[in-house]
């Protein structure tokens, strides 16, 4: 599509994607939803294992540790695999691990062994870590680089949809027919057989998809802004300052996310007087707002540059955290809900900006940015220590995280 400037010069406007990439984009976008389901279903498993396997809260926390710990282990190997064999085989490898970990729930349930479940969760986590490492640069490459931020935010909207579906599915299948005092793990086994079957089917179908040729990052192109071409090929990956800042920003971003999600129900119970069940229902709206934010953010990026929008949303979340920490009743609780709306675009936008103009370094860079998820395994412990005394005061801490994200979006995203 072309428009004409005031000087009469034709300017090519970047499309969201091209027709030849559409089928591939649909398949890869669906992956974002599936790993969103898997991650948030872990929260339901955590509580279910406490009941059925008689675990303490500290012991059941290994569910999250196994899943998120896999990101720290698989980030670099997944990037190397992707660089060696390409995006399509990287997706198939991730789906194979995802399905394999799901099917391992069958012998784990038969043995009623929590360590066995831990192994299954870790392998599943390696699968979703691989998918996340591969899918972000894959989606970014399916079209003009000038619209890569929009494509990644659009795909991440389906990840937000998955975060809504995951807890609903887990609650329905694991808690719906659970008998008090029962130690039966049949529901867990059947649920993960279904998940493994769906993921294996997606892998088989995707193996038949012919991925169109992508732009080679090693060659020169007519418009370097449109393709992910390294404008400074003499630099090593860690000499690109925007990439290093993206890794830092992603670490703090996931740290803020994990802490905010971990203590949402506590805030509703302690500050609003809700029961845990009522607070859990409000959490559905919490995730719906994140989904809404991703669609709204993707639309706004047509008019506001992605880094500027990132900085604006980060500044809004600093204000939200200040309101939450004041314990003002409904105004503070509404601010807590809106925290997820403004958080919505941060993960995908940081990811996309960090991959700009890295050319042949793109796959390796994706590995390191994906490893930022490790921040989610550390920050909740810090917030938890403060929340033991006052859960509202704990929400002062994410301000540090959003300040780092604001600086990245305001200044340090620039490719130098």
UniProtKB/TrEMBL annotation:
CDD domains documented for this protein: MFS_FucP_like
A GO cellular-component term linked to this record: plasma membrane
Gene Ontology MF annotations: fucose:proton symporter activity
Domain Major facilitator superfamily (MFS) profile: 22-416
Membrane association type: Multi-pass membrane protein
Localization, UniProt: Cell inner membrane
Keywords annotated in UniProt: Cell membrane, Membrane, Transmembrane, Transmembrane helix
Superkingdom: Bacteria
InterPro entries named among the record's database cross-references: Lfuc_symporter_FucP, MFS, MFS_dom, MFS_trans_sf, MFS_TsgA-like
Transmembrane segments: 21-41, 61-82, 91-110, 116-140, 152-170, 190-209, 245-267, 279-297, 309-328, 334-355, 367-387, 393-413
Protein name per its UniProtKB record: MFS transporter, FHS family, L-fucose permease
């Amino acid at each position: 599509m072309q428009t004409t400037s005031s000087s009469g010069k034709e300017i090519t406007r970047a499309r969201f994607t091209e027709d030849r990439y559409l089928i591939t984009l649909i398949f890869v976008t669906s992956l974002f939803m599936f790993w969103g389901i898997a991650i948030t279903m872990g929260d339901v498993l955590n509580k279910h294992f406490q009941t059925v396997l008689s675990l303490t809260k500290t012991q059941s926390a290994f569910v999250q540790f196994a899943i998120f710990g896999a990101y720290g282990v698989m980030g670099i190997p997944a990037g190397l695999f992707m660089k060696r064999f390409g995006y399509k085989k990287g997706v198939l490898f991730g789906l194979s691990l995802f399905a394999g970990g799901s099917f391992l729930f069958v012998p784990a349930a038969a043995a009623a062994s929590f360590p066995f479940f831990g192994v299954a969760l870790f392998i599943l986590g390696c699968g979703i870590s691989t998918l996340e490492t591969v899918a972000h640069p894959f989606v970014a490459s399916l079209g003009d680089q000038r619209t890569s931020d929009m494509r990644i935010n659009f795909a991440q909207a389906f990840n937000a949809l998955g975060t809504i579906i995951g807890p609903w599915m887990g609650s329905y299948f694991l808690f719906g027919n659970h008998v008090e005092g029962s130690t039966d793990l049949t529901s867990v086994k059947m649920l993960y057989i279904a998940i493994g079957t769906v993921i294996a089917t997606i892998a088989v179908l995707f193996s038949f998809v012919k991925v169109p040729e992508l732009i080679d990052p090693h060659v020169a192109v007519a418009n370097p802004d449109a393709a992910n071409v390294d404008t400074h090929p003499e630099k090593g990956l860690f000499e690109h300052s925007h990439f290093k800042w993206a890794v830092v920003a992603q670490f703090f971003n996931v740290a803020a996310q994990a802490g905010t999600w971990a203590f949402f129900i506590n805030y509703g119970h302690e500050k609003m007087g809700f029961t845990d069940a009522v607070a859990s229902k409000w959490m559905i709206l919490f995730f719906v707002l994140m989904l809404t934010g991703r669609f709204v953010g993707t639309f706004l990026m047509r008019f506001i540059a992605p880094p500027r929008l990132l900085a604006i949303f980060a500044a809004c979340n600093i204000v939200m955290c200040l309101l939450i920490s004041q314990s003002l009743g409904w105004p503070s609780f509404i601010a807590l809900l809106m925290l997820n709306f403004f958080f919505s675009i941060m993960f995908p936008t940081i990811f996309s900006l960090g991959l700009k103009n890295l050319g042949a370094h793109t796959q390796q860079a994706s590995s390191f940015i994906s490893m930022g998820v490790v921040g989610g395994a550390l920050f909740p412990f810090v917030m938890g220590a403060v929340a033991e005394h006052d859960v509202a005061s704990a929400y002062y801490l994410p301000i540090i995280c959003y300040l780092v994200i604001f600086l990245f979006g305001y200044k340090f995203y620039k490719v130098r």
